[in-house]
Design brief:
Elements: H1 2-15, H2 22-28, H3 30-46, H4 50-64, E1 67-68, E2 73-74, E3 79-80, E4 87-88, E5 93-94, E6 99-100, E7 105-107, E8 120-121, E9 126-127, E10 132-134, E11 138-139, E12 144-145, E13 150-151, E14 160-162, E15 167-169, H5 171-183, H6 197-229, H7 248-254
Parallel strand pairs: 1-4, 2-5, 3-6, 4-7, 5-8, 6-9, 7-10, 8-11, 9-12, 10-13, 12-14
Antiparallel strand pairs: 14-15
Helix pairs in contact: 3-4
Length: 257
């Protein structure tokens, strides 16, 4: 028990730059208190002391602002950061090394007793403030759920879910899109990554412009090849596309930036 508490304190010291000492974490972090008291409530619940488990959970909610059903399963080194208003349902499972911020709900969409109604978080999952993860599915290891996202379907390991309803971000595609946008002089996600029409339009414009730039470069290359084959001395340089610029300022004016 003491070794688990030491491990919990150490994980908070590692993940929260505001944590200054072991004593401060032990006495002033409601997320730690909620985890410790939940273990007591869960032990009561699994040994048939259902009412006592619920009562300990109720007292924990009163003291910390974090509501964890005694039937929920929580792994090692789980950090509830700030965590006021967090709700964790009865059949929820939280893996080792997860981080959960304030206002998160790990809730259910089914009313059938005994069913797996609440989500399972794999190892190292991060759930942003205000996110709602609803249903008996799995959020894979190392996945991230963005702030205020509403997730109602599985999230693959290592992926990121954002928006309402949540969509799964394809990491490699987004990295390429951001690199293309940086070359054009502005950030693809300077305003938002959520699934709103403006964000979709911006991503479409960036992909389109990047594709056009590539096609233009191929055309210049073909022209160079033709001119070289005719031994012309006034051929267009192969890097002529460097003179082309994506008009980011006009686009920013259109979206009101």
């Amino acid at each position: 028990m003491l070794s688990r508490i030491r491990s919990d304190i150490q994980c908070i010291l590692e993940r929260d730059p505001a944590a200054r000492s072991t004593w401060e974490v032990l006495t002033c972090y409601p997320g730690l208190h909620a985890v410790i008291l939940h273990r007591l409530a869960h032990a009561c619940w699994t040994h048939g002391l259902k009412w006592l488990g619920r009562f300990v959970s109720h007292i924990t909610r009163f003291l910390t602002g974090i509501e964890i059903h005694p039937g929920a399963t929580i792994g090692n080194r789980v950090f509830f950061d700030h965590a006021m208003g967090v709700v964790v349902g009865e059949t929820a499972e939280i893996g080792d090394d997860c981080t959960i911020y304030q206002g998160v709900t790990l809730g259910g969409t089914s009313l059938y007793k005994g069913a797996k109604r609440h989500p399972t978080l794999g190892r190292g999952v991060v759930v942003g403030a205000g996110a709602q993860v609803l249903g008996g599915f799995t959020v894979g290891d190392g996945a991230k759920v963005g702030s205020n996202a509403v997730v109602t379907k599985p999230v693959p390991a290592g992926a990121t879910a954002v928006g309402n309803p949540a969509r799964i971000i394809q990491a490699e595609l987004d990295v390429k899109r951001e690199e293309a946008a940086s070359k054009m002089g502005f950030s693809a996600y300077g305003v938002t990554q959520s699934d709103d029409p403006l964000s979709q339009a911006m991503r479409g414009l960036i992909d389109n412009a990047s594709s056009h730039e590539h096609q233009i470069a191929m055309l210049w290359k073909a022209i160079d090849t033709l001119q070289a084959s005719r031994d012309k001395t006034n051929c267009v340089p192969g890097d002529a596309t460097l003179a082309e610029h994506f008009e980011a300022d006009k686009l920013n004016q259109l979206v009101g930036k």
